[in-house]
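Q: My collaborator sent me two sequences in one message, no labels, and asked for predicted structures for both. Can we handle them in order? The first one she listed is below.
A: Yes, handling them in the order given. First sequence, followed by its structure tokens:
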Amino acid sequence: MAYVESAVVAYLRFLYYPDGFLVEGVHAVSDISGAVLNIEIGREVATIAMLAAVSLLTARGGWWSRLAFFIWAFGVWDIFYYIWLYVFLGWPPDLLTLDVLFLVPRPWVAPVLLPVTVSGIMMACAAAILKRTG
């Protein structure tokens, strides 16, 4: 899924930002039309729903196990999203590069280091939960 997500973002960047994509704040997405932006928001919600569905269908055990599978899947997806963006676009050039992290409920902007770090922490928490509940 990270491959698919990053491919979509690569296409959007080729179409809307052919000279390169530089995030300087939440207005970075202002060049994207409202209809396309709404589709992007829907894609983000669908990704979260897909990750939740995978965790509900694959986790055995109770609520904690399902939560652990969800946060593990989210962490892996998010890290590989950035890996694939780097493979496709050579972006981000470094972990301090600003990015639009999410559009829901409004654009979130932060250095790439933040979601990668949070994803690593989420994966560690998931492992701890599964060890404790396993």
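Q: And the one she listed second?
A: Here it is, processed independently of the first:
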Amino acid sequence: MTTSITPNSKNTTQPRGRPRITGDDLTARQVPVLAAAGRLLATRQSTDISVELLLQETGTSRPTFYRWFPNGMSQVFDLLIAKANTDLMVRIVSAISRCDNFEERIHAGIKAYFDWGWAQGPVVSGIYREGFTEGSIAQRYRRQTLDVVIGMINQQAEMLGQNALPPRMIETLVSWVESAGAVVFRQYPVKQSDVEQQCELTIQMFLATVSVVLKDHGIALR
């Protein structure tokens, strides 16, 4: 005679604690915390923003915060700056892809950069303060962006049938644009009219400079 065995619910192993949150659900819950961290960056260094300060800003409990950000504040700023950096690159690539010549691409790329700064608000203030600090998260992503931009500009040179430009030269030109951005964005909030004026000034200065530089390398700006 065979006796069937009914599983005893008391002996069934149950996962302890709350179920893990992943994917879009986790991303959605992280958004207000990341936004709060961005606001705090307008007036503080990232190293001065503690978990306690962020919890006060958001009303989030400590256990909940660490469920969403297991690696603490380093993860918060990594995600925040990575998101801003990705947005910048998408804007630049999208803008220049719609242009027909080198000058139009320069104009569109610089405008995309200033539009990004305006859209990012307080986050960009923190990025400007820390983008040149050795070992900072902002510096790491700035380096990645520079490498992409160097590749993009030399791709344009190749399309014109010219040799690649020295990376240091490109980084110098890009740093001038960053400096122009820092003048207007480092103090938050800013006026959109000020951003637009600074953008136009930067475009004219950049075009005047790069036309001379390219001429020295036998490249006509067109």
